[in-house]
Design goal:
- The protein is an alpha+beta fold and about 290 residues long.
- It contains ten helices and eleven strands.
- The chain has two domains: about 5-160, 2-Layer Sandwich (Ribosomal Protein S5, domain 2); about 165-285, Alpha-Beta Plaits (2-Layer Sandwich), CATH 3.30.70.890.
- α1 (about 70-80) packs parallel to α2 (about 100-115).
- The two termini are about 15 Å apart.
- It binds adenosine-5'-triphosphate.
- Adenosine-5'-triphosphate (ATP) binds next to α1 and α2.
- Adenosine-5'-triphosphate binds near residues 66, 69, 99, 103 and 137.
Length: about 290
C-alpha cells in the first residue's frame, strides 16, 4: 500500500460534568461524547525519504511538531522504527480551538492511517493506549460514536446512538483556550451538575426529548460569563425551534438539536445573518465506523 485516506470526525459533548480537580491538576470528568458529520480529510502517502512531511490548506495551523498529526505519526513511526517517510495532507474543515476535538481527531486519524499504511498491526486498544499520551480525547476519537467518557476522558463506555436529528453547529469568531476555561472553573463550588446517568438512560430508551432535556455543560459557567455571544446563540437556536442548545466542550462552539430540518436550516441562516458566528454547519450525528 502506497497511500491511504482517513476522515477525522469532530465531536460534540451532549453532556459535560466535572466531578473534581485532582491533586495533579487534571479534572475528573463525566461526559457524553457524540461524533458529528463534520470531518477533516487526511491523505497519507509513503515517501522513500525518511521523515514526516505535513501540509495543510489552513494557514493558521503549524505543520511541525506543534501539530498533533505530526506528533501522532512520529510516535508510531519511532515506536516501530520505520525507515521510510510519510507525507500527510490535511484538508481542514473542523473549526479550530472550538471544543470539537479537531486536533485530537486529526491525531487519531493519523494513527489509524499510519498503522494501516505501514502494516504495523496495532489493535485499536493499543492505539488508544499510545494515543492518550498525546491527548485525553484521542482514545475516544479513535473509535468515535456515542460514548460515556470518565476519568480524565480515557475511560470509555459505549452508549446507544441517539435517534437521528438535525444539528446546527455554530462557532463564533472568538478563541477560547481550554486551559483558561479549566483554570477558571471552580469544580468544588458548582451549584448544578447535569444528569449524565439520566441522559444515558434516555439514550437507551431512544428518547430524544429526554436526551435534550438533560443537556448541560458545567464549563458554560466560565465561558458564558466571559463571552455572552455563546448564550445569545443558544437562545436564538431555541427560539428557532431547537429541542435544546448547548456549548460543546470548552467552547465556544454551540450546537442545537432539531427534529425539523427546515427549522434547523432557518436557524443556521439567522445565526449567519446576525453575524453571531463565522462558521455555521447544518449536520447530523455520525455513528458509523471510523475510517
Ligand atoms: P478540544 O475539544 O479537544 O478542546 P479544540 O477544538 O478546543 O479541542 P483544537 O482545534 O483541537 O482545539 O486545537 C487547539 C490548538 O491545537 C490550536 O490552537 C492549534 O494550533 C493546535 N493544533 C495542533 N494540531 C492541530 C490540528 N491538527 N488541528 C487543529 N489544531 C491543532
Amino acid at each position: 500500500m502506497q497511500q491511504i485516506r482517513q476522515r477525522a470526525y469532530a465531536k460534540i459533548n451532549i453532556g459535560l460534568d466535572v466531578l473534581r480537580r485532582r491533586p495533579d491538576g487534571y479534572h475528573e470528568v463525566k461526559m457524553i461524547m457524540q461524533t458529528v458529520d463534520i470531518y477533516d480529510d487526511l491523505l497519507l502517502e509513503k515517501t522513500f525519504k525518511p521523515g514526516i512531511y505535513l501540509q495543510t490548506d489552513n494557514a493558521e495551523l503549524p505543520v511541525n511538531r506543534d501539530n498533533l498529526i505530526y506528533r501522532a505519526a512520529a510516535l508510531l513511526m519511532e515506536e516501530k522504527k520505520v525507515t521510510e517517510g510519510v507525507k500527510i495532507t490535511l484538508a481542514k474543515r473542523i473549526p479550530i480551538a472550538a471544543g470539537m476535538a479537531g486536533g485530537s481527531s486529526d491525531a487519531a486519524a493519523a494513527m489509524r492511517g499510519i498503522n494501516t499504511l505501514f502494516d504495523m498491526g496495532y489493535s485499536v486498544e493499543e492505539l488508544q493506549h499510545l494515543g492518550v499520551k498525546l491527548g485525553a480525547d484521542i482514545p475516544y476519537c479513535l473509535v468515535g460514536g456515542t460514548m460515556l467518557s470518565e476519568g480524565i476522558g480515557e475511560i470509555l463506555t459505549p452508549l446507544p446512538a441517539p435517534p437521528d436529528a438535525h444539528l446546527v453547529v455554530a462557532k463564533p469568531d472568538i478563541n477560547v483556550s481550554t486551559a483558561f476555561v479549566y483554570g477558571n472553573l471552580h469544580a468544588e463550588q458548582l451549584q448544578y451538575h447535569p444528569d449524565i446517568d439520566g441522559m444515558a438512560q434516555a439514550l437507551s430508551e431512544k428518547n430524544l426529548r429526554g436526551i435534550c432535556d438533560r443537556m448541560g455543560n458545567v464549563l458554560e459557567t466560565v465561558t458564558v460569563r466571559e463571552y455572552p455571544v455563546i448564550e445569545e446563540i443558544k437562545q436564538l437556536m431555541c427560539r428557532a425551534g431547537a429541542y435544546n442548545a448547548l456549548m460543546s466542550g470548552s467552547g465556544p462552539t454551540v450546537f442545537g438539536i432539531y427534529t425539523d430540518g427546515t427549522k434547523a436550516a432557518e436557524a443556521a441562516k439567522m445565526i449567519a445573518d446576525e453575524n453571531l458566528a463565522g462558521q455555521v454547519f447544518v449536520t447530523g450525528f455520525y455513528n458509523a465506523e471510523m475510517n
